[in-house]
């Protein structure tokens, strides 16, 4: 069976929203005001990275055990057409971001993607997401 090569790259950032109580927010603002951090985002990013670093071994083992791609996995129309031509189906497993080009039709996605598991962000057209809804875990 022919191997299909897919491109992997890193994305800059994804926006999230969090709710904090006034005491936590005040303490963050105090640390920013005192010059420990450049801004609220800097403190929050640092705190998140420290937590992730403290669990790095567990993350590494889980990525290996679940066969996850770490980073960004991008699928173009030509990538999926090559998968279809080879008579294969993809099981997409990503820790980071998976994206499917906007010119990929829902039919092509259904013919080539067996399942999608994304811990992070999944970007695709609304039509492709709808067509794959039963395959997204």
Short description:
This protein is α/β, with parallel strands linked by helices. It is 43% helix and 23% strand. Helix 4 (77-85) links the parallel strand 2 and strand 3.
How would you describe the overall organization of this protein?
Helix content is 43%, strand content 23%. With 137 residues, it is an alpha/beta fold. It folds into two domains: 8-13 and 56-135, no CATH class; 22-54, no CATH class. The chain has a four-stranded mixed sheet, with helices on one face. Helix 5 (106-112) links the parallel strand 3 (90-100) and strand 4. It is elongated, with a radius of gyration of 19 Å. The two termini are 27 Å apart. The mean pLDDT is 91.
Show unreliable segments: none
The first-to-last residue Cα distance is: 27 Å
Helical amount:
40-55%
Main pleated-sheet profile: 4 strands, mixed
- The number of distinct β-strands equals 4
Oligomer: single chain
Q: Proportion of β residues?
A: 15-25%
- Large-scale geometry: elongated
Secondary-structure element pattern, one letter each: EHHHEHEHEH
Give me the secondary-structure topology.
Blueprint: E1 8-9, H1 22-33, H2 40-54, H3 56-65, E2 69-75, H4 77-85, E3 90-100, H5 106-112, E4 113-123, H6 126-131
Parallel strand pairs: 2-3, 3-4
Antiparallel strand pairs: 1-2
InterPro entries: Arc_rbn_hlx_hlx, RHH_8, Ribbon_hlx_hlx
Organism: Noviherbaspirillum album
Pfam family, one: RHH_8
């Amino acid at each position: 069976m022919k191997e299909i090569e897919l491109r992997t790259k890193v994305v800059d950032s994804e926006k999230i929203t969090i709710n904090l109580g006034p005491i936590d927010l005040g303490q963050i603002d105090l640390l920013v005001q005192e010059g420990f951090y450049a801004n609220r985002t800097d403190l929050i990013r640092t705190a998140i990275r420290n937590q992730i670093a403290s669990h790095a071994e567990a993350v590494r083992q889980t990525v290996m055990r679940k066969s996850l791609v770490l980073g960004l996995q991008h699928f173009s129309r030509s990538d999926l057409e090559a998968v279809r031509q080879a008579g294969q189906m993809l099981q997409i497993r990503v820790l980071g971001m998976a994206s499917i080009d906007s010119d990929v039709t829902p039919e092509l996605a259904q013919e080539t993607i067996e399942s999608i598991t994304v811990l992070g962000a999944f970007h695709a057209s609304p039509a492709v997401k709808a067509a794959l809804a039963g395959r997204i875990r």
